[in-house]
Model the fold of this input.
Amino acid sequence: MVVEEIVNRRLSAFLLWLTITVAGLLLFVLEPGKSALLPGCPFRTLTGFTCPGCGTTRGLHQLLHGNLAAAFQLNPFLILALPFLLYALLSYTNTVLRGNPIRRNTLPAKYIWALFGFLLFFWIFRNTPFYPFAS
Ligand SMILES: [Zn+2]
Done:
């Protein structure tokens, strides 16, 4: 692997972590729904229905303040997905720092379809009166 490519990958990983850190700091300080810098969901504004991502910003804000239960109530899908996203981010960073070639997606298609189906179910279910959490 060319040295320039390794440096570029490390720089991209650094910028990714820097972006996450700055976004996390802003999200810790600013309260979603009360700050103009953090607008509400456009889908919800237009339709009145919640989307699968509704409550993500408020949930992350609660999570950054240590309120796991409140974060789960705002968007359970986020809390369930967060460990996997964190693992993927750490794995990517580890690969880049070691200079190893980046692996292609090895997740079988049936799991991706199952995830998509679960996301679709969650989207529909959270817009029914049976959904246990208000968001
Ligand atoms: Zn939304």
